[in-house]
Amino acid sequence: MFLHRFKLKNYCCVVMWMYVGLFMVACAPREQTIVLLHTNDSHGSILPVSGVGGMAERATVIDSLRKLYSNKILLLDAGDFNTGQAVSNMFCARPDILAYNYMKYDAVTLGNHEFDQLVDTLLQQMHLANFPFVISNVFYRGEPLGAETLVKEVNGVRVGLFGILTKATAQISVNVQDVTFVDEVEAARKAVKVLQQQGVDLVIGIVHLGFTESTPEYITSQKLAAAVEGIDILVDGHSHSYIEKPLRVNETWIVTANQSGRFIGEGKVKVRSGDIISFDWKPLPVSNVHPHETLQAVLQPYVDVANKDLQTIIGEATDTFVLFHDKENLGRYGEVALGNLIADALKWKAEQLQLHVDFALTNSGGIREELHKGKVTKGDILSILPFGNELEVVSLKGDDVIKLFDFLATVELGRGTFPQVSKEVRVVFNRESKTVTSLTIGEKPIDRNRIYHMATCDYVAAGKDGYSAGLSNVVDQQKTSVLMAETLMEYIQNQWNVTPRIDGRIKL
């Protein structure tokens, strides 16, 4: 009897512990995985360049990943889908939006180039989109321009999203009337708090801030991560940075995917009880990929219409007008032959319009592609000057011309503010002291009391990208409504053969 009770007791203990074990397993925190895919700074890259990028090619890669990971994918974009290839520019990014619709982007934030056109154009783009725009610090006429926060459930993980655009957009974009940009850190803290109150498992910021700062006061993604608690991942854009592994700042992972659809960022995020237990991220190259046939068919009519006009030959380059070295825009570091060509074209066109002009100057940030050796087409020029800027002539006293170049001497190398000038200008900048060593226009020193007339683009004339510091005392301003791109086309067509030349206009 005793033995029987002993066996029964042991049996009951075993059964009890089995139930306890099963209960503990059932109640143990679940480990869940989502796959974060992201792009940024697409810049109208409808077609591949030298076998790299392309919207239909991007769709092929994303489609294959969806087949692999099923419902685990979260697809985001960190802004600047506007302004780039001529086929995109001609249709105000309509084909780009249709492509994003097809690829089923979950959320997109705004970049500064979304303000290259009127806000009404952006609103039309947003209306066409089947995906939400998430932007926490941009308001139009007092109302949020998109969703300030968004919650998406992906594979059982509640993901909280917010979006931040650099406040510098107010200085570097023209079409920002009635647009308010709230402090990046303040807006991010508010958004994170709202998302945490909604009980999300993961907080992801889609930001257009950049890895690197062009001026010390700009908020980068790294500065945002350092200043704001509670952000798990920042998907960044703006600086076109290429990275091979994610950066970690203040418990926040920061990632970015270069530019122009050349890469797709892929991050496998393992989450347990609201904490990231692992983050395996890499840049996926979009190169030599077969285009997705369905999306290609959607985009082809736009390409055909554009090509009919854009393939028109307007001249010939005897050699390549080099603009890039190791992915860096050389025009932001010194004189380049393409900058010389554009500045000379501005002065020439102003004179054609019977405007008195002493010299021309434009910002290097507006020059986006090289001019390659061989036949030059309209499409080439629209890719070089994609922003729709117009020719203007501003008048300055000689004293203010000196102040303008004094300001330019202080501009950090690498910024789009760096000037390109016409052949009448000779300037020497001392980089150590950030001063002008010498300056002549038309081989003569500047007469402080004379009025000088400068051909430039409306972007510079409006004081954008810091030029307000150098153009605070404009005497007169003449608008022409002539596009810079059309000006360069006419100038090349007039000469037919153009040769790259660097002749010492700017010395450092």
Q: What's this entry about, in short?
A:
The protein is α/β, with parallel strands linked by helices and 508 residues long. The chain contains 14 helices and 28 strands.
List the helices and strands and how they pair.
Elements: H1 2-27, E1 31-39, H2 55-69, E2 73-77, H3 86-90, H4 94-103, E3 107-108, H5 119-128, E4 138-140, E5 143-144, E6 149-154, E7 157-165, H6 169-172, E8 179-181, H7 184-197, E9 202-208, H8 221-227, E10 233-237, E11 247-249, E12 252-256, E13 263-272, E14 275-285, H9 293-310, E15 313-317, E16 324-325, E17 328-329, H10 337-352, E18 359-363, E19 374-377, H11 378-384, E20 390-397, H12 398-409, E21 419-421, E22 425-430, E23 435-441, E24 444-445, E25 451-457, H13 458-461, E26 476-483, H14 484-495, E27 497-498, E28 506-507
Parallel strand pairs: 1-2, 2-3, 7-9, 9-10, 10-12, 15-27, 18-25, 22-28
Antiparallel strand pairs: 1-13, 4-5, 4-8, 6-7, 11-12, 13-14, 15-19, 16-17, 18-21, 20-25, 20-26, 22-23, 23-24
Helix pairs in contact: 2-4, 4-9, 10-14, 11-14
If you had to describe this structure to a student in words, what would you say it looks like?
This protein is 31% helix and 28% strand. With 508 residues, the protein is an alpha/beta fold. The protein folds into 2 domains: 29-302, Metallo-dependent phosphatases (Purple Acid Phosphatase, chain A, domain 2, 4-Layer Sandwich); 312-507, 5'-Nucleotidase, C-terminal domain (5'-nucleotidase,  domain 2, Alpha-Beta Complex). The protein has a 6-stranded mixed beta sheet. Strands 3-2-1-13-14 form a 5-stranded mixed beta sheet, with helices on one face. A 5-stranded mixed beta sheet has the order 21-18-25-20-26. α4 (94-103) runs antiparallel to α9 (293-310). It starts with a helix and ends with a strand. 47% of the residues are buried. Mean pLDDT is 91; it is low at 1-8 and 17-28.
